[in-house]
Amino acid sequence: DYYQYKKNSVRSLWGALKARELGTFFGNEWSRMKGMDLSDVGYDAFLINGKRSFEVSDLKPGKKVRIRIINAAASTYFNISLGQEEMKVISADGVDIEPATSRQILMGMAETYDVLYTVPEGKKVELR
User: Fold this and answer.
1) Average pLDDT for residues 121-125, to the nearest whole number?
2) Is 122 helix (H, G, I), strand (E, B) or coil?
3) Which positions ≥6 away from 30 have C-beta within 8 Å?
4) Does 84 have pLDDT greater than 60?
5) Single pTM value for the model
6) What is the maximal distance between C-alpha atoms in the chain?
7) Between vectors from CA 104 to CA 128 and to CA 61, what angle results, nearest 5°?
8) CB atoms < 10 A from the CB of 94, how many?
9) Contact in structure between 82 and 124 (CB atoms under 8 Å)
10) Which of 7-16, 74-83, 114-123 is the least confident region?
């Protein structure tokens, strides 16, 4: 309901009473989903393997790692990167593609990408 207040689109009982539309107001309230349930969903956590943070410490430099990234958001686009490191995109939405090298991927809702990444020597890299 926060966004209804922010966008000034709250349905008003007082406004319905003044307009002599109480029947319509209560009928709509009974049948409609609340504002947050439609598409404006807010989350305070982004998960990797079901956890807020995740660190893989047993990777050897030079090893290639396949990372599957899934955007499970209902209404949010994400820019995905591995810092400024290059990654090779090898699959989009479960379909193998001609590999493409990129430093960033713009992901829409319900998209899935598989990327190959070569572990660098002597540094940590953050998936963002």
Assistant:
1) 85
2) coil
3) none
4) yes
5) 0.63
6) 72
7) 70
8) 9
9) no
10) 7-16
